[in-house]
Amino acid sequence: MGLQDRSELATAKRVVVKVGSSSITGANEGKLELLVDALAKSHAAGVEVILVSSGAIATGMPLLGMDSKPEDLATSQALASVGQSRLISRYQQSLERFGIVAGQVLLTAGDLEAIETRENAKRAMDRLVSLRVLPIVNENDTVATQEIRFGDNDKLAAMVAILVKADALILLSDVDALYDVPPSNPGAKRIDYVGFDEDLSGVEIGGSSSAVGTGGAVTKVSAARVATDSGVSVLLTSTDLVAQALEGAEVGTWFESDPSINN
Ligand code: GLU
To answer: Residues of 197-208 as b/e, b for ≥16 C-beta within 10 angstroms?
Structure first.
C-alpha cells in the first residue's frame, strides 16, 4: 500500500515527481530552479527522489527556430534530440548548487513492457538512487514510434513509479488541484481527496490548453488511476506548490491507492 496521507510525503522513502513542459520552459523557464530547490531539499532529508521531466521538444523548439509544436513525428523526434541534452544540462547546472549529480534515463513504452529491459531499467534506477544521484526520466522520443509512444509523460511517470515501487507519485500541472468543474468556472471547488476506485463521472475533467505539452487533467487522472491500482498513492498539484507538496502540506488532490496492496 502507498502512503496513507500526503502529510507522510516529507518522510517517504521514495517519491517520483513528474513535471510537464509548460512548467519549466518558455515563459516559465525560471521555475526549473524552484523545482530543483524543492527536490534538493527532499533529497537532503533522505527521500529518494526520481524526477520524470518533459520538455525536450519544447526546449528544442527555439533552438531550431520553431515557435509551435510540430505535427509530424520526425520533426518532434529531431526537436527532442536537440532539446533533451540541453534540458538535462539545465537541470545539472541547477542541481550543482546543492552538489547533486543528475542521471539521465530515457525509456520507451516497449522498454517497460518487456521483462528484461524493464528489470534492467529498475536495477539502474535503484543503483542511481543508492549512489545519491537524482535520476531524470523522459520518454526516449527519438526512437519511440507513433504506435507505441506513451505520448504524454503522465502515463510514463505512473509506470516508472510502479516499477521503482515508489511510495507516492506527485503529478505537477499548471493547476493546483482537480476541481469539480473547470477551475476557471465561478464556484469551482477543489477536490481534496479521491478514494480508491471512487467514481469521478460527475467531475468535468478538462484536457490540455498548453501550446507545448500534452495532457491536462484527463491524462493526469488516468495516470493517477494506473498508479493507485498498483498501490502507488498520487498527489496532483501545481509546479508552484511543489515545495509545499514535498513538505506534506494540505495542497492539491490526493488519490488513495488500493488499500489491499502491500508494496
Ligand atoms: N517527451 C516529451 C518531451 O520531453 C513530452 C511528452 C509530454 O508532453 O508529456 O518533450
So the answer is: eeebeeeebeeb
pLDDT in tens, 47-101: 999 999 999 999 999 999 999 989 888 999 999 999 999 999 999 999 999 999 9
- Number of CB atoms found within 10 A of residue 190's CB: 14
CATH code at 197? 3.40.1160.10
Q: DSSP labels for 118-146?
A: HHHHHHHHHHHHHTT-EEEEEE-TTT--G
Q: Is the CB of 103 under 6 A from ligand 1?
A: no
Ligand 1 contact via 55 beta carbon (within 6 Å) = yes
Closest among 124, 152, 117, 120 to 138, alpha carbons compared: 152
Structural domain total, the chain:
1
> The domain containing residue 56 runs over which residues?
6-255
Across-strand partners of 237? 172
Residue 60 near ligand 1, beta carbon < 6 Å: no
Q: In this model, does residue 146 exceed pLDDT 80? A: no
Whether 262 is in a domain gets the answer: no
Q: Tens of pLDDT along 5-59?
A: 999 999 999 999 999 999 999 999 999 999 999 999 999 999 999 999 999 999 9
Q: Which of 178, 109, 120, 89 is nearest to 150 (CA)?
A: 109
Q: Is residue 32 part of a domain?
A: yes
Integer CA distances (angstroms), 59 to 4, 40, 85, 239, in order:
37, 23, 9, 18
Best mutation site among 21, 84, 91 for ligand 1 pocket (most ligand atoms within 8 Å of CB): 21
Distance 213 CA to ligand 1 centre (A): 6
